[in-house]
Amino acid sequence: MAIIGVLAAVGIVGYQQYINNTKADVTKANARSLERWVVSTQLSRAGGLTVEPADCAVQTAKLEVCFDQTMVDPKGPLEKFKNPYFPSQPDAPILIYAATPVADGAACTFSPSKVARVDKTVTTAALTVITSPGTLVVSKLGTADSLSLTNNELRVGYCDSNGEFKVVGASLPF
What we know:
Helices cover 32% and strands 24% of the residues. The chain is α+β, with helices and mostly antiparallel strands.
């Protein structure tokens, strides 16, 4: 009986570690997909091609207009994304657009920001937002803030299970 108890305890711990690693891997993969979308959208914009969502095309709007639409567009890059740490919560945050730079390893707190949830709603957070693990983050670098410019720089990353921001794309032109 003791042997079975020990084996069960080891198995449960191993299974929990497997689940945690899978959540972290899905979050990283989501952030990399978002990074690839930013890069390919910029290439399309620079070449004068049509981009989806249309609010991300070259125009005079601010960057946040593009990311507002990106967060909720049914054909957008987040269409099938879920927060792997909260898969059954429709109001779980999936993406934060932060208008100020966020450093690698910084705490995942942002203010003010746009927050997109899994249920495809976007809100502006006037107070400090402490995000949950699995949240993707697009952070604006520098002072450029118009889609009509080509010198916007973005940092793409995610919040890990320790509440720290991890960068996957350090200085992406947009």
